[in-house]
Each structure stands twice: as structure tokens, then as C-alpha cells.
């Protein structure tokens, strides 16, 4: 069944397959999804705040310490689409449980790391666990909420992403004020155990695909993302020879992968979904939005430390308003995402985010904490307005049976944007001695570009 919206003919669903859950069943299932989501987002946000201390303790440069973030994101990004495909075959609930277990083991390894290499590898394993969770997260929401309320479920999902990011800096600052950085990973253990128990008891069983797992496609997908990401990181650190060779190898893997996937019935890289223009546009808007957000999120702790001369405890508190704004606006927009098109809501949201970055850009270095905080909150509110409508636009485009591919691609757009933003930060830190405000300017440009693309999707999708 296909419905037409102001963003174009894009809504496809099966009234029986997407009937959703009700009452206590929905409450328990959604609680399991949100707790697993909170686990992965909370740890990512805490690690960002600890980057300056980790760099100092492990005797690493600021640009190299960013690999604590990049390793998680690159492993997560590389594994998302193969795991989304696997989830369609083994069940979304089972894959989510596996992800929580991997995340728990990797958190212990992170806490016990003695050098940057060990921590980077442990974070990569943590990223794989997060990929298991994130690749099927929205697909599970698709089965928990009926189609007419899907926007509300996705907005609630966005609310918990915001809560995780909001709690992360504050919790990280609190931990770092009384303990060393390994404790930001130890706190994952009780949360992971609770999430695992609830997921086992409450997540719904979803229809499974009987198409065999594509191992060749999976390996090519991982190699394509990983080699391209590592190569680009080398280029950003001015390692042009090895970085260029690895990047070329990644591009060749992409060419092989796309050629191989053309004849597949359910391709791991969902070229069938990307051929749908509304789906492609929503993914591009999501990508640009998260490029902008990570240019801000990754660079801002260093900006606050070097340009505004704030301590570790204060840095977390000054970043927290971003996530408070995201969470607050995600709650507000939950009733709007099913009523108004993403071409309006998401465009306004990214324009507000760009305005917030612009206001931060013009701040003097002796600005008060309040001056920094309210501008950060304003930018976060815009991002919270942008996310749920755009995520809904991605999911309702997928035909029945392709929920896993759409959910994986939604997360790929997010993580590809975040990883690209982090790589740009590393590059700017390598090229410029004081890149703090340059990163803010680049974030503003990315957000404005995404807003313009979102505004025009009604006409571009025709």
C-alpha cells in the first residue's frame, strides 16, 4: 500500500505487518529498545568529554586521540549494513541482544586499556556492538508502533538519543571530577546487564527473510567503509602516501561492491531503496545534519578548553545544553512528525541549528558560561526539530520486507555524517594551529546546506 504526502509519493506499508503493539506490550518492548539505545549513545557522549584527559594520560596528540571517537564510529559504520541484513534473517530482537552483550564485553576492555592502541581496538569492538543495536533499532520501532503513530515512536527514539547525549557530558564531568577516565566505561556494566535482561523478555519477534546471508557482500561492505575511513583519516593527518593508497583501495572495494550488488534480490547496500528519490534525499539531509553536529560535538571540548579556558568539569556542563535542546524538541515534535512534512520541519530545524552555530562563532573568548550555554541550547533545539521528521521520511519510504535495510541506511546516514564530521575536525586540527572557530563555521555551512536540500525535497523527489 502506498500513500502520497507533501514530500512526494513515498509511504509504503502493510496494514497487517505494521499493525504495531498496544498497551503493556508496547510499553515493555519500547522500553527495551530505548534502554539499549541509551546504552550506546550515553557511552559515545561520555567519551567525547574525556578526550582531552585521555590524550594527556596516554601521551597522545589531540588529533590522534580523536581516534577514540573515530574507532567506535568507523567500526559501527562499517558493520551497520551487513548487520541490518543479518537482522532480517536471524530476527531483529536476537541481533539487538547480541549487540548489548558485545557492548558489555568491550566496555570492560576499554576500562582496562593501557595505551591508545588498546583503547582504540576496544572501542572498535564496542562500535560493533553498537552497530548490532543501531542497525535494527528503528526497524523494531517500525513493528512496535502502528503506521499512523510511527512518527511518535521515532520522536521518542530521538528523545532518548537526546537524553543520552545530555546525560553523557554531565555524567562524564561528574565521574572525571572524582575518578579517572576508565570509570566512564565501567559504568556501562549495570546498564548493559539491565538492557540485556529487558531485551530478552520484551522485544517482539519479527518476520524473517529466507534469503541466504550474503557473506561476500558483507565482507566487501565492511572493507569499503573501513578502508575509505582509515584512508581519509590518513589524508587528514597529512599522511598522503599511505592515506592515498588506502583510500584508493577503499574506492576500488566500493566499485566491486556496487557491481556485485546490482543483481542481488536484497542487496546489503540498499541500492534498490536509494533508487527511490525521496529515500535518497532524506538520507542526504540526514548525512549533512550529522556532519554539522559532529563538527560541533567533537571540536567543542577542545574549543572550550583552549579558546575559552574552561576546565574538564565545566566543559561537560557547557556541552550538555545541546543535548537538552535535542531531547526537549524531540518530545515537542513527536505529535507533529506524523502531521507535517519533513520538507518543512527538518528544514526549519537545520536552519535554527546553523543560527545557533553562528551565534557561538561570534562569541568573544571571555564570554560567560551563560552566553555559551543558551546559544548551545538554541542550536540543540533546532537539531531536535530536524531529526524525527527526517527519520520518519526515511522509514516510510521502505516497502514491506525492507525495514531492516531502511533502518540500517538511516543509521549509516547518521554515522557517515558523524564520522565525516570527526575526520574533518582531525583535518582542521592538523592544518590549522587554532581551528576552534573554523570548525564552528564549517558546521554552520553543513547545516545550512542540509536545510536547503530538505526544503527542496518536495520538488527534487517529483
UniProtKB/TrEMBL annotation:
Q: What's the superkingdom here?
A: Bacteria
Primary location:
membrane
Q: Does the keyword Ribonucleoprotein apply?
A: no
Q: What compartments host this protein?
A: Cell membrane
Name the SUPFAM superfamilies for this protein: MFS general substrate transporter
Membrane protein topology class:
Multi-pass membrane protein
Ranges for domain Major facilitator superfamily (MFS) profile: 29-459
Q: Which UniProt keywords apply?
A: Cell membrane, Membrane, Transmembrane, Transmembrane helix, Transport
The membrane-spanning stretches of this chain are: 32-54, 66-86, 98-117, 123-145, 154-177, 183-203, 215-234, 240-258, 279-299, 311-332, 344-363, 435-456
Q: What is this protein called?
A: MFS transporter
Report the source organism: Gluconobacter vitians
Amino acid at each position: 500500500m502506498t500513500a502520497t504526502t507533501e514530500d512526494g509519493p513515498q509511504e509504503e506499508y502493510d496494514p497487517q505487518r505494521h499493525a504495531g503493539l498496544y498497551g503493556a506490550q508496547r510499553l515493555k518492548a519500547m522500553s527495551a529498545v530505548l534502554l539499549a539505545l541509551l546504552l550506546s549513545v550515553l557511552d559515545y557522549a561520555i567519551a567525547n568529554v574525556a578526550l582531552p584527559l585521555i590524550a594527556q594520560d596516554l601521551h597522545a596528540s589531540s588529533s590522534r586521540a580523536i581516534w577514540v571517537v573515530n574507532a567506535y564510529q568507523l567500526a559501527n559504520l562499517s558493520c551497520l549494513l551487513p548487520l541490518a541484513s543479518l537482522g532480517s534473517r536471524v530476527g531483529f530482537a536476537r541481533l539487538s541482544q547480541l549487540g548489548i552483550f558485545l557492548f558489555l564485553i568491550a566496555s570492560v576492555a576499554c576500562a582496562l586499556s593501557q595505551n591508545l592502541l588498546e583503547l582504540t581496538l576496544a572501542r572498535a569492538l564496542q562500535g560493533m556492538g553498537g552497530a548490532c543495536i543501531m542497525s535494527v533499532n528503528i526497524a523494531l520501532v517500525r513493528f512496535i508502533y502502528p503506521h499512523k503513530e510511527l512518527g511518535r515512536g521515532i520522536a521518542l527514539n530521538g528523545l532518548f538519543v537526546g537524553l543520552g547525549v545530555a546525560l553523557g557530558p554531565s555524567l562524564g564531568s561528574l565521574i572525571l571530577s572524582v575518578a579517572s577516565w576508565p570509570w566512564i566505561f565501567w559504568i556501562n556494566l549495570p546498564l548493559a546487564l539491565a538492557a540485556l535482561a529487558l531485551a530478552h523478555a520484551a522485544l517482539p519477534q519479527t518476520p524473517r527473510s529466507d534469503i541466504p546471508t550474503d557473506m561476500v557482500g558483507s565482507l566487501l561492505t565492511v572493507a569499503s567503509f573501513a578502508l575509505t575511513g582509515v584512508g581519509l583519516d590518513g589524508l587528514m593527518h597529512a599522511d598522503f602516501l599511505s592515506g592515498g593508497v588506502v583510500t584508493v583501495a577503499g574506492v576500488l572495494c566500493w566499485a566491486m561492491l556496487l557491481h556485485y550488488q546490482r543483481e542481488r534480490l536484497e542487496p546489503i547496500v540498499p541500492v534498490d531503496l536509494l533508487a527511490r528519490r525521496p529515500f535518497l534525499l532524506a538520507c542526504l539531509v540526514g548525512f549533512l545534519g550529522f556532519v554539522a553536529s559532529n563538527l560541533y560535538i567533537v571540536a567543542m571540548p577542545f574549543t572550550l578548553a583552549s579558546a575559552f579556558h574552561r576546565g574538564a568539569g565545566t566543559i561537560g556542563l557547557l556541552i550538555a545544553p545541546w543535548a537538552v535542546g535535542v531531547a526537549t524538541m524531540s518530545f515537542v515534535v513527536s505529535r507533529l512528525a506524523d502531521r507535517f512534512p519533513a520538507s518543512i520541519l527538518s528544514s526549519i530545524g537545520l536552519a535554527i541549528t546553523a543560527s545557533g552555530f553562528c551565534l557561538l562563532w561570534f562569541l568573544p573568548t571571555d564570554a560567560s558560561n551563560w552566553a555559551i550555554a543558551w546559544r548551545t541550547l538554541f542550536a540543540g533545539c533546532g537539531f531536535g526539530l530536524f531529526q524525527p521528521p527526517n527519520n520518519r521520511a526515511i522509514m516510510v519510504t521502505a516497502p514491506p520486507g525492507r525495514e531492516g535495510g531502511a533502518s540500517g541506511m538511516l543509521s549509516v546516514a547518521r554515522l557517515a555524517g558523524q564520522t565525516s564530521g570527526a575526520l574533518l575536525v582531525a583535518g582542521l586540527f592538523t592544518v590549522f594551529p587554532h581551528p576552534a572557530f573554523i570548525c564552528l563555521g564549517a558546521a554552520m555551512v553543513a547545516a545550512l546546506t542540509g536545510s536547503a536540500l530538505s526544503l527542496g525535497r518536495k520538488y527534487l523527489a517529483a
